[in-house]
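Worked example

This section walks through a single chain of length 117. The input is the sequence exactly as stored; nothing has been trimmed or padded.
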Amino acid sequence: MDVLIHLCVGLHIVGIAALLGGFLTQMKAMGQGTARFVPGMLHGALTMLVTGVALVGLNQADDHHVNTIKIGVKLALLIVILGLVYVKRDEDRIDKGLFGLVGLLTTANIFIAVLWT
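Given that input, the structure is written out below as C-alpha cells.
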C-alpha cells in the first residue's frame, strides 16, 4: 500500500509542476497582457484532483490520519483553479488579475500542503 501511496504523491507533484510551470511560462506574456491558460495547466489541475482524491482514499484505507479540514481547503482552492482554467482555456487573452489569481491560488495550495501540519 505504501508504494501505491508514494506513486500517487509523485503523480500529484507532477500535476502541481504542470500547473505551476504553465503559469510561470506565461509570466512574460501576462506582463504584456497576452497570457493564456495552456493545456498543460488544465491537465496538471486534473491530475492533482484525481491523485489527491486517490491519496485521501488510500491513506484512509491504510488507517492513516487524514486532516479533513486541510484537505477540504485544498480541494476548494483546486476547484476554483480548475473552474477558471477550464472555462477560460480557449480564450486568446486572459485578464492579468484572473491569471495572477490562478498563480496565487496554486502557490497557496502548495504552501498549505507543506506548512499545515
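What to look for: The chain has a mean pLDDT of 96.
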